[in-house]
Amino acid sequence: MICGNGGSAADAEHITGELMKSFKLKRPVSEEIRCSLEALFPDNGAYIADHLQVGIRALSLTGQSSFSSAFANDVAPDMVFAQQVFNYGCGSDVLWAISTSGNSKNVVNACIVAHVSGLYTIGMTGEHGGKLSEICDVTIRVPACETFRVQEYHLPVYHTLCAMLEAELFA
Question: pTM score, two decimals?
């Protein structure tokens, strides 16, 4: 699960896209899936098998607009991500929390809920780290304080992390 506000919300969506499909490496379906598709659906099973890619399960918590607006209006806007973490998170899941200041209340609350739920937390922040650096299992601080600069530095960091994760799982 990935969350952030504004430009960091866009980064959460971007990261989700990199994880859910091939980034640098090919991620074809298994031969078993291919054979099943071709056997059960001879007209288009091969096409489907050729175009499916094995993904890394990822969910941007920023993309749930109907839920988010209803929860913010009816309950508490600073709990929108925390509510999703509480309901979606399980087992060895990871919450990747992005905040340029490290102090975005809704992102911090999501990390608190993730922590007590036994999830692993990764924070990405600016130079000072803010509250995320105190509560995340790992905090990646980039050497900048200005929001636009922090966001610029976050891009190569998360691309590198996506490439490393893909290499670990699919190389």
Answer: 0.94
